[in-house]
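Sequence in, structure out.
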Amino acid sequence: MAAETAITATSRSELLLGGRRLSYLDFGGTGRPLVALHGHLSEGVTFAALARTLGPEWRVVAPDQRGQGESDSAADYTREGYLSDIGCLLDHLGLDRVVLLGHSLGAINAYQFAARHPERVSALVNAEGPAALGLDGSNPLGFLLGLPHEAPTREALLAGLGAAAPYFADRLRENADGSWRLPFRPAEMYDSEHHVHGDHWADWTAGTCPALLVRGTRGVIPADQARAMTERRPGTTLTELDTDHFVHTAAPEAFAAAVHRFLEGAGRGEV
């Protein structure tokens, strides 16, 4: 992972939660803490470019959320499970109050945690995390159910992934016995997507800290929902980027600039 090693201060650590490993990247520095939460089918290293832009003023910590990257599978992928992981990570790091930033699944995790623990979140960055989604019962990760988790060789795994292979080829892991695997279990991510669906307006509007909502014009948040999210939650700023759902990787410079402006504007003494 070149993006990870390019930041010389980056370290990978872990904590054990009931015997389950939760791995995280700490991009280093003594700046104010910002915890970044990735979305489905991703991992903490996806925030390496953002960490470079914000450092050294900000110390970015990015966990591999349960069941993804270097973190172990979990017994469940409920809302309560994800939020518990965030609290345990903050306690492990000795962080009483942080900025929470999240993309997609991670954004919903972030604003739900902020709603339940307002004293621990000084500001919030929501990148493409709707206040309501999947209300029609559909699951966009249904394609995962036909994919293998592992195979005896890298070539065999890529062949089994078929049309999905280009999306995961650079993130495959080699096991100790020489076999290869995806950095997630497909069925678990399908289940996680199911659990993140719902009407979360009460959680979104319960937050009181300054918030930045970043919407991709070709993303998953409809324009009218984004406007309503901004209007119904005081202290929320909307930034729209001309890109798709993956705003932080599809338009990294514009995304980082928007986050930096927001953090500066929210006030150095409070955020």
